[in-house]
Amino acid sequence: MPEPIRIPADVARDAAVDILAAHGVPAAQAAQVAAALIAADLRGIDTHGLACLKDYVAALDEGRIKAQPKIAVTRRFPWAATVDADNGLGPLAASEGMRLAVEAAESFGIGAAAVIRSNHFGAAGVYAAMAAEKGCIGIVAANASAVAAPHGAATPLLGTNPLAVAVPAGNQPPLIIDMATSEGSRKKVRKALDEGRPIPAGWALGPDGRPTTDPAAALKGVMLPFGGAKGSALCLLVDVLAGVITGAEFGGRVLSVMTNQERESGNGHFMLAFKADAFIAEADFVRRMEEEIARLRALPAAAGFDAVAYPGERSAKKRADRLASGIPMSAALIDGLVALGGGRLLSGGRG
Amino acid sequence: MPEPIRIPADVARDAAVDILAAHGVPAAQAAQVAAALIAADLRGIDTHGLACLKDYVAALDEGRIKAQPKIAVTRRFPWAATVDADNGLGPLAASEGMRLAVEAAESFGIGAAAVIRSNHFGAAGVYAAMAAEKGCIGIVAANASAVAAPHGAATPLLGTNPLAVAVPAGNQPPLIIDMATSEGSRKKVRKALDEGRPIPAGWALGPDGRPTTDPAAALKGVMLPFGGAKGSALCLLVDVLAGVITGAEFGGRVLSVMTNQERESGNGHFMLAFKADAFIAEADFVRRMEEEIARLRALPAAAGFDAVAYPGERSAKKRADRLASGIPMSAALIDGLVALGGGRLLSGGRG
Fold first, then answer.
1. Whole-model pTM?
2. Three-state secondary structure along B280-295?
């Protein structure tokens, strides 16, 4: 495999803006989407950064996502916004949703946004982190097209259904939890098949509806939520929060932005932000979070671990590295982005 | 094993009130605690119902829990209450916390309570269900004494740390998720050892800090959160919500009510309640929840399952059965409760 090329974050972001603008997205909206995707790349979530632009642009070009949506916000309570994304780009609607939730939290101590008629939004943790940057605890739940069977079922109903939570942590990087509530992905199963490895127990059922570690059987069967019955309950809860309560599609009716043809994807996002000083003084909260992290990091490591890390710690290190040295991108990714309108990547890489 | 004896729910509840009153708890408070414990028994969570009274009474008698706490409520925002439980019984403080959260939700659409200086509170789902009974989505997180090592660590920092969510579901029983975020329990490991069975992968590390399925090695090692790194992140999140943000103990400093001697247990609970009609019309919400459940239940079952059930469905059936036919209790449990002051159980059983 050739070495990836390091692209400075600002060059990558500007290239993303160019690409989106070239496909009809107004400049201000393009900047918001690019910022969300770059935030994922910076944290090392390469599958949810600029790599998403290929599918986004295809959907824009084919009219399956609106390049110039009219986002509409309504409220039933001062702290709660419903954001109609008008079938625009997911990162745009999600950024707007969390912005509104944080804005409300700054006035009322708590704020929420229910985002409907949205699309794939990249990495959930990016929007939770937006809240933490403003001193709020941020929670994000989003539903997605059906890939996983609920516990006890043999066919899919639930999506990857990400759940993310970010908590500011004073002089430490924020705690950022960002997880798909379904286990593994068919992509990873295909990789295991190619490499002749079994998949971990709990990832999938075979075509006979029984648990399997055989990747070939898993590909003919169905993926599962993570963590057995408990993870399945959480995966369902994400669909309830992001789909049922918001007014978005739910219960297996969300479509993938890669395949939706006859109707909108219908993704829903649920965003919650609140201030810890609703409960304790801000200074106490900060001191206690720092202490929580210090106690966790001081634990002796288990076999196979160098040290005990908290969620968000490694991605913060990656972010610092990538801000300093650029975002590593494969030549294939760069070529693809250049073809979409990101020509400035060719001159901006540091090699 | 002899057949359990079925005790009518009202007899069991009155016996619990008698027991608590005999050990110094005022009548009104005893009724609240008894109601919470019976609610767990009715849902089939026998370990978190009247079976808890033995430890509670011991703690009351030894002064480790206050029989007549002065619960104090303060607010920094109208929707947010901090409840100082004054080291009283956990079910009392938790019931009061969720009552206040629901009360605020009825005025503002959302309400929360941070409960500090509390104790073991029984089943988290009981308090989440209190919210659902009032038409609110209820979320409960509680921390507990350290039993589980966070992902990558070799020693305990996190408790069973229950997380519960209840969502009203119209003409269906509410969705009730109620899970320990740590996997298994040492009690279950001891049972596996007695029965010569291995424990499931992912439950524990052995004394060498490596994953084990050998119950003997697990008992010398440490238990783990459920679901690998993702479950560990959630178990930590529960400690942050219930401990760090509330002002309670956290980070391994909560004590068990069975063993605390030198200081209070210091348990914290985080309670959130909100109305779906903050986002969509109540009637739409109800119709959509019913539809979500109908779609899930209509899925073909996996091998080994008769049908696909949603979280809360089985416990609702159990509740209906036990309300009609009584709560099954072992003779040993009944004898123990009679010895604590629950004499009316002897005449109330239906045999």
1. 0.97
2. CCHHHHHHHHHHHHHH
* Reported ipTM: 0.96
Question: Is B209's CB within 8 Å of A301's CB?
Answer: yes
Using the Cβ of A308 and the Cβ atoms of chain B, whether some distance falls under 8 Å is answered with: yes
B167 in A contact zone (CB under 8 Å): yes
Residues 173 to 192 of B: which have CB under 8 A from any A CB? Answer: 175, 177, 179, 181
Distance from chain centroid for Cα A2? 28
Instruction: Name the amino acid, one letter, at A342.
Output: G
Q: How far is A27 from chain B (nearest CA, A)?
A: 30
Question: B80: which chain A residues are within 8 Å (Cβ-Cβ)?
Answer: 109-110, 278-279
Nearest chain B Cα distance for residue A332, angstroms: 31
Mean pLDDT by 10 residues, chain A (351 residues): 90 98 98 98 96 96 97 97 98 98 98 98 98 98 96 96 98 97 84 93 92 94 94 98 98 89 94 98 98 98 97 98 98 97 82 44
Question: In sequence order, what are the beta bridge partners of B164?
Answer: B140, B178
Pick the CATH number of A1-68+326-351 from 1.20.1330.10, 3.30.1330.10, 1.10.1530.10, 3.40.1580.10: 1.10.1530.10
Question: What's the start-to-end Cα distance of chain B, in Å?
Answer: 15
**Closest Cα to residue B112, out of A272, A143, A113?**
A272
Could you tell me the fold of the domain covering A73-182+225-279?
Ribosomal Protein S8; Chain: A, domain 1 (3.30.1370)
Rounded CA-CA distance A20/A29 in Å is 9
Q: Where are the domains of chain B?
A: 1-68+326-351, 73-182+225-279
